[in-house]
Design a protein that fits this description.
alpha+beta; single chain; 20 strands
Length: about 750
């Protein structure tokens, strides 16, 4: 364990330590950190809350990770979302530092953050400063609301379901009031419903029921006030010559004003020139067009005709058969509501009377044209006044609901503090240091355990894009198997690191079982494999295994070729046997020769046999020479054998050793969205723990031999003895052993030479 301190030049020292009482005006000594070395990297040890409070002083070059995603890791996403202040889905050192300082500012002692558990006593909150005091009061309020008046401890479970009991409260802080919020006030309830009908609604944040927020309420009341003021302008005596009946008279006049003006204009033209009378009245052709259809007096073609026949007399009948039937009802209402009250009972209306009537109603007409064009303009004056009467009560209700938002913010702060108390230590041990991984406590990036090929692989990571991940993860110099995992219609992808055992039987398509961190089992299938050595011992046998595989492939190819030739020969022979009773079709094409001579086929060339003999002799001579030189080594034969083995296995072992020294966790996590600051080595010892092979447990014993084991028996021993004997005889016959045998045994002579 080493002890060091960070440079004050890189990390300014605060005047006081958050989470403790009092400040120090004099400069204090730099904080002394403690480190352990794991994975070839110095990693900080969090011994006390002071280490957490002063984490800003720790040089970020000593942090193991500089960023991690908020999803795809085994960590509460809600906690990560509260730490991720910019909401970009990634947590970085400034956000971790801010979370640590934020928590320490609200606690009496930062040691609480190392305890974990998600439980917080109100006495742990620092009530000498505003942030801690506000949380203490809110915590007390929540406990009282939950019926725990005698309790002094808050748990995460106490506020995790806050949505349910906030929904049951009349005011929940979202500033949205519903008709139910009005309670027994029927007028206020009706005003809220009317505002929702005319100006829309917004869902209540906790109940998800439609309600009214401040913006809509203000717009609603503004329109109601505009209509009220418009009604108030109509109280002027000049606007209402008929009192309350003036509105009806003006409406009746406005309904027929265009047609009446059209009639008097036509009559004036007719008075100007009698010849225009025929043109100003409907033509016979217009009536012929109407006669071909089923007539309705209110149909548009009839309504477009003049109000009455146009004559120079310029008098408009108000009733009678000479009036256009399409306008009969409108003219009757005009005569009743406007003409009779202002001009008396008349059967016809002169143009001067019409102009006088319009002048009398002009102020009221102008006032009506100024009617506000909003959603409330069609309501009666009494209804508008009733809505305006609820204005103060409505905004008071909204303000009271908005006031509860302060409690909501404090509630979120309490949740954040409880989550940090539970999870911050875990995050620091998986972000600032990798203590959880190197002490095999289960790092947050480990997805679970893969069982495949007689091994359990603990170093597994979630993967979103296999091709993209493999491009970077291949630099880890680790044997990686990408697997697609399925379970009950769900699917995910992982990558598992095989860091021990051999890789001879790892191939695409092989199946296994994956257990996630929740213990659920998934079907796993290898979809991609990145091969790398898992140990030097495995690399030692790799060349021989490769040689055996090549021999097997060549033998298989030769056997396949021989089988194909045999099949062709058998097929040819079967064809000749099947046609033996038929005369040869090629007798006429036989070459001339001696009578009765039979052509010879398949004759062996003596030269070829000689060439083969010479080749075999040369090969045997070379082999005999090599064997003789090998025997000449004498006591150096074991060294020669070791040299041959090293020559064959040495390069493979050297490459494996170099790759194992470079085997790292960093590229695997970088490909998953992390930013790893160190190399994070995975040596052979750690790899043996991360990928454990199948072993019979201690104390167990085998109660029976394998009935299906390979049986070499006496035949194998005899074959080995025969091979050795043939080698000795060959060496003796070739005089290779003359220099090695005793004199009495050389060429059958005795010691005396007799």
């Amino acid at each position: 364990m080493t002890t060091t301190s960070s440079s004050p030049a890189n990390n300014p020292i605060p005047a006081g330590v958050p989470g403790t009482h009092g400040t120090h005006s004099a400069p204090r000594q730099p904080h002394r950190w403690q480190f352990i070395r794991a994975g070839g990297v110095d990693q900080v040890v969090f011994r006390s809350g002071e280490d957490i409070a002063l984490i800003a002083e720790l040089d970020q070059k000593l942090w193991v990770a500089l960023a991690c995603p908020t999803r795809g890791i085994d960590f509460d996403p809600r906690t990560l979302d509260l730490i991720d202040s910019d909401g970009d889905g990634r947590v970085r050192p400034p956000e971790v530092i801010a979370a640590c300082q934020w928590a320490c500012e609200r606690l009496r002692s930062a040691d609480v953050l190392l305890a974990g558990g998600g439980t917080l006593s109100l006495d742990d909150l620092d009530d000498t400063r505003s942030p801690g005091a506000d949380l203490a009061r809110e915590g007390r309020r929540i406990l009282d609301l939950l019926g725990k008046k005698d309790a002094n401890t808050l748990t995460l479970a106490d506020i995790s379901d806050r949505g349910e009991w906030l929904a049951s409260m009349r005011f929940n802080g979202d500033g949205v009031v519903t008709p139910q919020t009005a309670g027994d006030d029927d007028a206020l309830r009706a005003a809220i419903e009317e505002a929702m009908r005319t100006h829309g609604s917004t869902p209540d944040r906790h109940e998800n029921r439609p309600g009214l927020d401040r913006a809509r309420a203000e717009a609603f009341m503004a329109e109601a006030k505009a209509v009220h003021e418009w009604y108030a302008q109509g109280d002027a005596e000049a606007l209402l010559p008929l009192g309350e009946r003036t509105l009806a008279a003006t409406e009746a006049m406005r309904a027929v004003a265009a047609k009446v003006d059209d009639f008097f204009a036509r009559c004036r033209v007719a008075a100007y020139d009698v010849q225009a009378v025929a043109a100003l009245n409907p033509s016979a052709e217009a009536y012929d067009a109407l006669s071909g259809h089923t007539l309705d007096v209110g149909a548009p073609p009839i309504a477009e005709l003049p109000l009455a026949p146009v004559t120079p007399s310029r008098s408009l009948p108000l009733r009678g058969t000479s009036l256009n039937p399409a306008w009969a009802d409108a003219m009757a209402a005009f005569a009743r509501d406007a003409v009779a009250p202002l001009l008396g009972e008349l059967d016809a209306l002169e143009e001067e009377q019409w102009q006088a009537l319009r002048r009398r109603l002009a102020p009221c007409e102008a006032w009506m044209e100024a009617r506000p064009a909003n959603a409330l303009s069609g309501l009666s004056r009494d209804r508008v006044d009733a809505l305006l009467a609820t204005r103060d009560a409505l905004f008071a209700l909204i303000a009271e609901d908005e006031a509860a938002e302060h409690h909501n913010r404090l509630l979120v702060d309490l949740e954040k503090l409880l989550r940090l108390q539970r999870d911050l230590r875990v995050l620091l041990h998986n972000f600032v240091s990798f203590k959880a991984f190197y002490q095999r406590e289960g790092a947050i990036f480990q997805a679970g355990t893969l069982y495949l090929d007689g091994r359990s692989c603990e170093l597994t990571v979630h993967v979103q894009d296999t091709a993209r991940h493999a491009a970077l993860a291949g630099l880890a110099k680790t044997c990686l198997a990408y697997c697609d995992c399925t379970r009950q219609g769900q699917k995910m992808s992982i990558v598992a690191a095989f860091t021990a055992g051999d890789v001879d039987f790892l191939f695409v398509g092989r199946n296994g079982v994956f257990y996630d961190r929740q213990g659920r089992d998934w079907d796993a299938t290898i979809t991609r494999l990145i091969e790398n050595p898992t140990s030097v011992a495995q690399a030692f046998f790799a060349p021989y295994k490769k040689f055996v595989r090549l021999v097997e492939e060549q033998v298989a190819k030769r056997a396949a070729a021989s089988e194909a030739g045999s099949q062709s020969a058998l097929q040819s022979l079967a064809g000749r046997v099947a046609t033996a009773d038929q005369p040869a079709a090629t007798d006429a094409a036989k070459p001339p020769g001696r009578p009765g001579a039979t052509p010879t086929a398949g004759r062996v060339d003596v030269g070829t046999v000689a060439a083969i003999g010479v080749a075999l002799g040369s090969i045997s001579a070379v082999l005999v020479g090599i064997f003789g030189k090998f025997i000449d080594l004498g006591q150096w034969i074991p060294v020669a054998l070791a040299g041959i083995v090293i020559a064959i296995s040495g390069p493979s072992m050297l490459i494996a050793w170099l790759k194992l020294r470079q085997r790292s966790l960093g590229p695997i996590l970088d490909a998953s969205g992390w930013a790893i600051n160190g190399r994070m080595k995975v040596n052979v010892r750690l790899g043996g723990l991360l990928s454990q092979t199948a072993r019979v447990p201690p104390g167990a014993k085998r109660i029976a031999a394998d009935p299906y084991r390979e049986r070499h028996g006496l035949a194998g021993v005899l074959a080995a003895v025969c091979i050795v004997g043939m080698g000795v005889v060959l060496a003796w016959r070739m005089d290779w052993l003359d220099d090695r045998l005793p004199p009495r045994l050389q060429h059958g002579t005795t010691i005396s030479g007799q």
